[in-house]
Specification:
Length: 190
Amino acid sequence: MKSGKDVLKILHVQLDTMKNSDVIFLKEAFYAMKNNEVEALRHLDQYYTAFKLEEELAIASTKTGRSLLTGIIPLYTGKTLEALTHLKKLKISHYPVIYGAITSILDLSLEDAVYTYLYSSLSNLVYVSSRIIPLGQVESQKVLASIRDGMLNQPFDYESLTLNDISSFTPGLQLASLKHETLFSRLCMS
């Protein structure tokens, strides 16, 4: 990767991958929380563990999920705090499952939950790219604007996706993740 165009290509692949994986887990967790289906949340978290074959990515997902939940709890009071605290006691940990459950508790729409998840995930990748390529601030902002516009102008039917639709064929990403685990000097710590 040498430019914003290269980063944008990777972001589009990542976006397509997340639409058929993380978004489905997020959506299912969103509804499971809405319907107070605790066992469904646990099942989704276990399923996601099995889905994430690369150990480093699975660990990163649990760290990010736990961090999000731990960070958001002090911001609320009352019934919202009770619901978030209950969620923490369930020991659900994977990021898309936690994100879906939290956005359900906070009464966001599923659409807002999906698009904020996608955009924040992709913007994190742009941030990392800006550090390791290096990608300048202006070029980074252009990449973010382009991916945002692409997401908004090409909506997808996330409501119809189910656990049976989960797929992820990204052998290049998987191989790079496996190699990243054993590098002497790592580019970024997950």
